[in-house]
Structures are given as C-alpha cells and as structure tokens.
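Record type: ASSEMBLY
Status: queued
Input:
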Amino acid sequence: MESLHPRVRLLWVLSTVIQASVLGVIAYLVDRFAVSLPQTVVVGGWVVLVVLGIVHAIAAHRIWRFDLQDDALFLLRGVVTRTDTSVPYVRVQHVDTTRGPVERAIGLASVVVYTAGTRGADITIPGLRPERATELREQLRDLANESEATDAV
Amino acid sequence: MNRLHPRSAVLRVARAALQGGFFGFFGGSLGTGMFGLPAFAVPLLGLLGALTFSGYALARYFRFQYELDGDTLTVESGVFARQSRQIPLGRVQNLDVEQNILNRLLGLAIVRFETAGGSATEATLDAVDEAEVKRLRNYVRTHDRDQAAEAETATADTVSEAATPGRSAHADLPGVTGPKPTHAGDTQARNDLGEPVSESDTAERDQPDGSLLFAFTQRELLTYALVSVRPAAPVLTLASLPLGMDVVWAVLRFNATLAGASLSGPVVRWLTGSPETTRLAVFAALSVVQFLLLALVVSVALTVIEYYGFQLTQADDDLRYERGLLRRYSGNIPLEKVQTVTIRENVLMRRFGYATLAVETAGYSGGNQQSTQGVAVPLAPREEVYELARDIEPFGDLDFDRSPKRARRRYLARFSLAAAGLTAVAYALDTLLLETGYWWVAALLFLTVAPAAHLRWRHRGYDLGESVLATRSGFWRRTTRIVPYYRLQTVFVTRSPFQRRRDLATVGADTASSSSLLGGVARVYDIDEDTAKELRDTLRERLTAHVAGLRTGDRAGDADA
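Status: finished
Output:
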C-alpha cells in the first residue's frame, strides 16, 4: 500500500484557504452592499473553516492509501465515510495525469483513471510526485492492456 | 449519401420562417419604439428575419447527409462549422424512433442512434419517412445478426459445453460490454420464448419474424396507470394550479362553506381571521383530499399518454418497444447490450402480484429522455416478469441473504432520531406560532419507527448467484437489480461513522448503465464488515473469471474458424 506525498496536505489546506477566502469576499460584498454582518462572525467563520480544513487534510493524508493489486487498482480513502474502491484493470478506459495551478506551484500531480461506470467513473489519485504520476499512468496503461491480452489466451 | 426527407425540410423551413419572422417583427417593433425607426421597418425586418432563418434551415437541410455503408453510419452536417461523424454500427447501443403528432400526419419520424460514449445522442436523423425507418432498423439489426451468425458458426462446437456465463457483445468498449458472443445456446433458448399473445391483432408490420412478448389491453393500461404512482404528478399539479386560480378559489370557498364557516368576504380573510380549529381542520382535510385526487388524475393521464398502445416484441436478439398516445416512441434494444436488469414493485403492485421490468444499456449517457429509457415491461404478473428477466439475463432462483439484525437496530436509531427531530420542530412551531397545544400529535410518529425499521431491514438483501449478483432494497418501491458479473465496473465498500460503530459496511457494484438518476450502482446495504470485504473480493474474482471465460471461448472459436 502506497500513501500520498506528505506535501498533499499543504495542497488540500491551500485549496481550503482559497475556498474560505472566496466565501470571505462574498461575505464582504454582502456586508458592503446588502445586510451588514458582524466582523467577528466573518473572521471567525474563516478561521473555523481553515482549522477544519487543516484537521481534515491531516486525517485524509493519514487514511489515503492506494495499491496496484493483481487484478485491480485499490484505493482507500475518506475521513468521515471510509470508502475502498477496486477498479479492475479490465475496466480501465483511459488514464490521465493532470496538474492544476496549485498543484504545479507545489510540485505535485494527479492521476485520473476513467471507467465506463456511472458512479466513480473517474477516480483521482492526488498528491503524487510528477515522475511518480507519469510512471503510475504508464503502469496502469500497461496493466489495462495486459489484462486483455492474458485473458484472451 | 442520403438526405433527410423533403417533407421534413418543408417543415423545418416553415418553422424557421415563423421564428425568424417573429424575431424580426419583435426587433422591428422594439426599434420603432426606442430608436424611432420608420413604421415600414417592422414588416421589412420581419420578412428579413424569416428569409434569413429559413435560408439557414434550408442550407442545413442540404448540408445534412447520412449513409449506411458496411458497418458504419456516416453523418455529414453543419453549415458553418462542418462536421463529419462515423459511428461503427457494432457500437450502437440503442436505436430510438420518435413521432410527434405533426410527424405522424406527415408520415415522418425522428431516428436517434445512441452509443455508450459522448454526452448527447450521437446521431439524430430529423426526420425520415417510415420506409426509411424500417430500412435503417433492419440494416442495423441484420448487421448485428450477420456478425452474430459468423461468431455462432465459429463457436457453436467449442462453446456450447464450455458453460460460458451468458451472452455478450462484439468487441466493444472494454468496459461496456464483454467480449464476443456465444450465441449457440442463446438463440435456441429464445426460439421457444414467451408465448406470443394474440399476435394477429397487433400485427408486426415491418418485422415479420418478431414475436410479441407483451402488450397492454386498455384495462391493463388503466390498472398500470392507477398503481404506478408518479412522484412528479403532485409537483406538476401544484405548479399548474396558478393557471386556474379562479377555479381554485371557488373550490376553496366551497370547502370553507362545507366546513361550516360563514363567509362574509374572500376565503383568505376567513383563513387569516383566526378560524376555529375544528373547522380549519375539516377545511384543510377536504382541500388536501381534493388535491390528491387531482394529482391522481394527472398521474393517470400522464401514464396513459406515455404508455398508450405499449407493446414489446422480440426479433432475433433485439427487444423492440412501441408506445405513446400523442408522441409515438419506438426503439430497439439489442439484448447483448443489456447491462443490468431491474425489477421494480411498489407496495400496491406487490399486493396484487405485479411487477415492472426495466433493462438498462449504456446508451443514454447524456441523461436525456429519462422516461423513455429502459422500461421493458411496465406491468405484468410477477412470474411473467421474472421469466422474461431470466430470458434476457439467465439467473437461477433468487434466495436473498438479509443484513445482520444489528442493521435493523441501526435503522431503528436512525428513524427515532428523525421522529424526535420532527417532534421538536412541531413543538417549536406550536409554542411559538400556532398555540394549538396539539404538538404532541407529531410524537405519534414514534409508533411508526419500529415497523418502518423492520420493513426496511426485511426488504434489503443480496444474493450471489452463479453468474449474477442480485441486490434488493426498498419497501415502498422494492427494487431488485440483477447484475451479471461480467458487467461489473468498479466495486467499492463504504463505511459511515454510524456503520463503523456497528461493524457494518455497504458494498456497491457499479455498472455502465445509463440512468444516472437511479444510479447504475447495485448496493448491498449494511452487511457485516468482514462479509463485505469477502463480497468485494468475490465480485472481483468472478469478474476476472467470467471475462476470462468469455475470452477463452472467444479465442477458441476464432482459432476454430
């Protein structure tokens, strides 16, 4: 079982900070143009959100695991509701590596695995070093191809 | 290359001219009002709009060409941004035909080709005449059959004993369908299938070899309309009430007099002027009953319009449905593209031994036309439904395992919390606003908690069959899903904090089905955590084994050929 790069916590915290700040800006605009909001509530709300984000990021990193098993990609995640997901290699449609702006700034990358299913049709593994992401993508591609070849024998 | 039918061009040009004319007229009126354009600009702009729009429509008609050649459908379209699209016929999941009233008068029909990819319908032919519909349908179907026949002759010897689980499709999206078909046993089984019910009166005009599996008589249709409760009907009724506000007021007024109120002004004044509680209760009860009756009528009407003249036929390896009073819908569902089979029974249907059968393919991925998708048999006696389901996807007798008893305690706790919450709300409302002193009526909800928990627990279960996973859930509307192992996509196990407290887990098996609303996920709720892990591993193993099994058979057949 492989865990994510520790720096992914920073990524998650940063995105929480960004989201909380967007909410803060909205609150500011509401305060300015519509109803006046007490400043303590706005600032306090921002702090609470960020603290929750930090706690969540630490817990999520501790729980997140993934593993390339014999027949399937196996993921373990979820802070509140634990979920383990098995993606059989036979079912992989295609694999992407993606790097968002925050990910690029921190030097991380994600791998996204697509299936034809309805729920969990795209499964993201965040917090990978770029080299590892590329490697993983190629591994998954090979496993997907192989699973078809060996099956047909 | 073929063009769409000329009559459809006339229709479209006329429609575009109307739209453009209206647009120009509207713009002109606005212009004369705001910028002081001369008055003759209005008809002139109207004419200009009509000409531009109809010209564009005509250009689109002439640009739109399609062709069936070999095993590909080619569609050329677009006036400014030109598009050329090729669809391999083997990947077509569904072929649907729609006729609205105007089209029916003109003898035209809209044909839609659905494949598993993409977010919208992959090719829409709007519109062609009925002979062309027949030709397209037959081409797609016989194309399938030719391919199947090839595979069949190749695999007949090797595969029939190989106990390969079920049928599957041509080489396709790896995830959406399994590998090539093993039709040997299948076609045989299907020859003596579903006694053709009175084939004469609903003659199959364009499919001489189709056998009627199911058709509605008027009475059955009405029964179905009555027992199938449409949750959308009350909402629709409520939304359309403002259209007949005068009638609504009159009825409310009538109710108020029935309740014994002496009205001196509008009903609203009586309502706001603190009426007696008993009178108010009678008034409210009357109004609610009337509303529900109206909703029932709406629901029945909607269902009748949707399923009027429903019939399901089978031609070779295709299911074919036809239905609709105002708009006629018909479509082909290749059996080998069926992902899951779902049997639904609501409380009323269960009471009278009826059930609904739905099949799902990966076709309508855009989530469009929810109502058309999948319902193979709207209402039939349960045994017939199961028989047909077994024929589509062979499975043995279902023997459902229930969740452990502690799951029931979990539901008990959950429902108690809900009842407590509602009672608290009622208490707060009553003390702060209404002051009737009757808030404790809400506490009667606690009486329903225990039976509700038990019923939920009783109707949930799963069964690991030889080649399928079956799951069941729901009391009001019990849904039984049959998922063949070789159709599984991802498998996941979820544990919420409440489940973790009781060592329970929910296992989900995803398929490539189309209904995103109902979800293509078959869920096994609240089973023991270790059992859940075992189930997950079993599902994974069986998926691999069954896909491998199919592939081996396939390869052997190919080698033979």
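Annotation: The first strand of chain B starts at residue 65 and ends at 69.
Annotation: The longest helix of chain B spans residues 529-560.
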